[in-house]
């Protein structure tokens, strides 16, 4: 199962995957101080939600931090302002995050003292409405796919 419990969103509300009413989830792991891949993926997810139009309510995009020590609710709330408002940004206890990272088989390296960067895998994970893993996409996932050619 790809479900989760007891995480806290960018508004300070405790959430679990069951709170999303059986929606499919697009799960992204990262951290707010990430300079390149996380903002790119969140930007793609924001574009995807826009392109889905009326169908966007069937998908919940979830960003889960791999740096819960530094990604406080306040930091995630500020970071959230740069992306689609429908995205949920989640943090939690280190043990809960570590368990999720292991469950999803996310690579997370040690934090670099020099610049605070954390090497991490950059897949987007698709979870069905029953909380089961469907598949994952590489970082070059194109948000325009599935909507036909753009004019």
TrEMBL record:
Keywords: Copper, Disulfide bond, Metal-binding
Disulphides: 34-38
Protein name per UniProt: Major surface protein 5
SUPFAM superfamilies (alphabetical): Thioredoxin-like
Parts forming coiled coils: none
CDD domains associated with the record: SCO (cd02968)
Superkingdom in the source lineage: Bacteria
């Amino acid at each position: 199962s790809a479900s989760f419990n007891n995480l806290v969103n960018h508004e300070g509300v405790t959430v679990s995957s069951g709170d999303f009413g059986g929606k499919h989830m697009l799960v992204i792991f990262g951290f707010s101080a990430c300079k390149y891949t996380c903002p790119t993926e969140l930007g793609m997810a924001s574009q995807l939600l826009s392109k889905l139009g009326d169908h966007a309510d069937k998908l919940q995009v979830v960003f889960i931090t791999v740096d819960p020590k530094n990604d406080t609710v306040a930091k995630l709330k500020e970071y959230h302002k740069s992306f689609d408002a429908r995205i949920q940004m989640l943090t939690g206890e280190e043990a809960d995050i570590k368990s999720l990272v292991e469950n999803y088989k996310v690579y997370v390296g040690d934090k670099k003292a020099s610049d605070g960067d954390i090497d991490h895998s950059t897949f987007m994970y698709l979870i069905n409405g029953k909380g089961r893993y469907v598949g994952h996409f590489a970082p070059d996932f194109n948000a325009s796919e599935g909507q036909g050619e753009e004019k």
